[in-house]
Design goal:
It is elongated and about 85 Å long. 18% of the residues lie in helices and 36% in strands. It is α+β, with helices and mostly antiparallel strands. The strands form three sheets. Strands 3, 4, 6, 8, 9, 11 and 12 form a seven-stranded mixed beta sheet that branches. The protein has a three-stranded antiparallel beta sheet with strand order 5-7-10, with no helix packed on it. A two-stranded antiparallel sheet has the order 1-2.
Length: 187
């Protein structure tokens, strides 16, 4: 196709018009031709559909289900059948079953034991064994807080057991954990 169209004016002078525009008909023809060649080439080369996924090697990540055994040199107590007094000491965790975005997963934790000068919750620890960093956060409390309650957001990479540890002023540490499924990782 000639991009330069030459015309002559009435007085015989040559006029050159430069048209770089493509017509609608040419655009449709070229689009159909490109699509047909792409489909034909992929069928001739016999490229499987999931070849891209294989090339970046998507492998399922194994979830760690271990418990945190010690924190700051103190042994963590994981109690399967707690007594009424132990139920007050074990932290309660509120997490969604499925987190839509692993970058901002809401978490609430509390201990029902009243905060007194004799025995109070000193520190909450949030741990996740499947994250690159085990300790996601720690929160220090005093008897003046009145209630042992924290609400925040954490970042999770994949489906995992989020573990909350409650350290008391008598140096006892109690743990609880909850499973969270993450659809889009945040790390």
């Amino acid at each position: 196709m000639n991009k330069n169209i030459r015309q002559f004016a009435d007085d015989g002078e040559k006029i050159v018009l430069n048209t770089n525009k493509i017509t609608r008909r040419d655009f449709i023809k070229k689009t159909i031709l490109t699509t047909a060649l792409t489909i034909g080439a992929s069928s001739i080369l016999n490229v499987p559909r999931d070849s891209f996924a294989k090339s970046i090697s998507l492998k399922p990540v194994k979830m760690k289900t271990n418990y945190v055994k010690t924190i700051n040199g103190k042994e963590v107590k994981w109690i399967a059948n707690p007594t009424a007094e132990e139920k007050l000491l074990i932290p309660k965790i509120s997490l969604p079953l499925i987190a839509q975005d692993g970058a901002m997963v809401p978490i609430k934790m509390e201990a029902k034991k009243p905060q007194t000068d004799n025995l109070y919750l000193k520190t909450f620890y949030i741990c996740d064994l499947n994250n690159p960093h085990l300790l996601l956060g720690s929160f220090d409390l005093t008897p003046f807080n009145g209630k042992a309650y924290i609400s925040t957001r954490i970042k999770l990479m994949q489906e995992s057991y989020v573990q909350v540890l409650a350290e008391y002023s008598n140096n006892e540490v109690y743990g609880a954990r909850k499973l969270v499924k993450v659809t889009v990782g945040g790390c």
